[in-house]
Amino acid sequence: MTIKRYGAEGGEGTGGQHLPFSRAVEAGGWLKVSGQTPMRDGEVVEGSIVEQSKLAIENCLNIMDEAGYGLEHVVHVSVVLTDARYFQSFNKVFQQVFGDHPPARICMVADLVIDCKVEVDVTCFKSPLSD
């Protein structure tokens, strides 16, 4: 089995900080996308929980697309919210995106290391034989 790393050179985080991890790793039909926040060009995009949720998920989808995976391949999503009151608003965004392909999910409340309201990671599976 081979392991393919997307963005292994690391990205750029807030304040130009080097991020020492891959955007995603693929092995044996599985794709694990690293936690994505509402960042664009290395900076958190300010906004409501709805706006930040859409961007965090969009960032995951862009990485999935780069690796050749689509919504139909998502098997699990992990969500971190910084406030339990964001739960219903996040669910609305989640439903809009994953409505036809609802994955398993965990949603938790915790502090995040950067100033944002949400972080999302995605696990996908695509049978290597289906290509």
UniProtKB/TrEMBL annotation:
Q: Which GO terms describe its molecular function?
A: hydrolase activity
Q: Which EC numbers characterise this protein's activity in its record?
A: 3.5.-.-
The enzyme's first-digit EC class, named in words, is hydrolase
* Gene3D superfamilies tied to this protein: RutC-like
Q: Does the keyword Aminoacyl-tRNA synthetase feature in the UniProt annotation?
A: no
The alphabetized UniProt keywords are:
Hydrolase
Q: Which Pfam families match?
A: Ribonuc_L-PSP (PF01042)
What family does this belong to? Belongs to the RutC family.
Name this protein carries in UniProt: RidA family protein
